[in-house]
Design the sequence.
């Protein structure tokens, strides 16, 4: 286990019924989505601070977002990265802290990823398209 | 191998704990965030009602904490990516302090902009 406790070297590959190849792809997906999220979260934080300074009201928010195609594209990419990153992180947490290592964990994580992606896109549609 | 307290009495272990707990908290918050944004489907007035509800002091404090957690997860994650993918350099030893400092600065910037 590295200092970050990610445990990728010591993960119980066979216990969850997941092949080593799938575990490797999950590791890559986690890092790739992290790199994309680094940029997205930075833009998000700057936007939040800017928006709060400009005043938060339904009208002020929707005036900036409605019909903003670039904003919707960015937000959709952000949601996709979240839907990949958060479930894989929670999977590691469930394995290491809860001892949940069987195949049902993978199903739970897959459903969570799909739900986050769907509800995230719905939220983006609401704000950018309406 | 079992970890004892010596393995945990180290800044890198605390960084791991902050990264994991902030990730967990953000994952729990996400569905609520998506739900709140989705309220825009019911019009501007509904969004305004929700925004007014978030003006309570306790929720303002929670907002600041969320920004702090998001910034901490970002800077902690950048530190991990640097440690994992870049060749080892001496300056990486101070990444932890930079990560903590940048996260606090982001939290402060949001708190002062409120």
Sequence:
């Amino acid at each position: 286990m590295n200092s970050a406790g990610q445990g990728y070297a010591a993960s119980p590959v066979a216990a969850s019924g997941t092949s080593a190849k799938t575990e490797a792809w999950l590791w890559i997906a986690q890092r790739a989505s992290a790199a994309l999220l680094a940029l997205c979260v930075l833009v998000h934080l700057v936007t939040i601070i800017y928006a709060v300074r400009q005043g938060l009201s339904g009208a002020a928010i929707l005036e900036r977002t409605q019909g903003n195609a670039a904003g919707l594209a960015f937000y959709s990419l952000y949601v996709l990265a979240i839907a990949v990153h958060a479930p894989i992180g929670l999977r590691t947490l469930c394995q290491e802290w809860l001892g949940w290592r069987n195949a049902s964990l993978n199903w739970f994580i897959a459903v969570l990823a799909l739900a986050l992606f769907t509800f995230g896109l719905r939220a983006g549609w609401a704000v950018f398209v309406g | 191998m079992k970890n004892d307290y010596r393995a945990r009495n180290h800044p890198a272990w605390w960084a791991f704990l902050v990264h994991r707990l902030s990730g967990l908290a953000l994952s729990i918050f996400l569905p609520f965030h998506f739900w709140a944004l989705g309220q825009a489907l019911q019009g501007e007035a509904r969004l305004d009602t929700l925004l007014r509800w978030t003006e309570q002091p306790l929720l303002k404090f929670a907002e600041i904490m969320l920004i702090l957690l998001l910034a901490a997860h970002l800077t902690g994650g950048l530190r991990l990516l640097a440690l994992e993918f870049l060749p080892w350099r001496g300056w990486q030893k101070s990444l932890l302090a930079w990560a903590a400092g940048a996260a606090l600065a982001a939290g402060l910037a949001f708190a002062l902009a409120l």
Summary: The first helix of chain A runs from residue 20 to 54.
